[in-house]
Amino acid sequence: MIVESQLKVENASQRDVVPAGDYYMKVVKKGQTLRILDMEGNQAADTLFYNANDPAERYSAVDTIREQGNVYLTTGTKILSDQCNVMLEIVADTCGRHDTLGGACATESNTVRYAIEKKCMHACRDSWLLAVAENDQFGMDKRDITHNINFFMNVPITEEGGLTFEDGISAPGKYVELKAHMDVIVLMSNCPQLNNPCNAYNPTPVEMLIWD
């Protein structure tokens, strides 16, 4: 559901531009609002969420999908943890829907989906692994990398129950806003994928904004 935000950019307490292929790993405090902004359109922001006070509790695709009765996320969606606690709620969305099923690119999927010589190209899983290695204050490692949300990504379900990766439905300046219901670690990989036509083979930056 399309809902525009009432927040003003000039009032944001934090603003970070994340280049394609880079990661973002910060804590959003309970009550704060996070905006993920698709700066140039059709860019995928592969995102994981963790309880900042106990990272063993993290976003659960299964519980979120079951409780919402929908595989797509949009305004009004409550993002649940694997303990069925509400982590965040989408309070504004100008894109319309976001993917929960497509997963993240990895060296293995690069090989399967594209070609053997693509294996060593950058992938979101590599960005997450670098993030947890460079931010040891969170006490996380590769075992904490789980299923993710693909903000702005268009992954329709076929009549046979399969998945297809289609051209994006986002555009320059589209965004999604989430209000934190607990202190949350946000781990986002701004997808570096060069082999997918959804972004015209041109990964672009996203901006992360936080309001207190």
Automatic annotation (TrEMBL):
It comes from the Bacteria. InterPro entries: DUF1989, UAAP2. Residues 17-185 form the DUF1989 domain. This is Urea carboxylase.
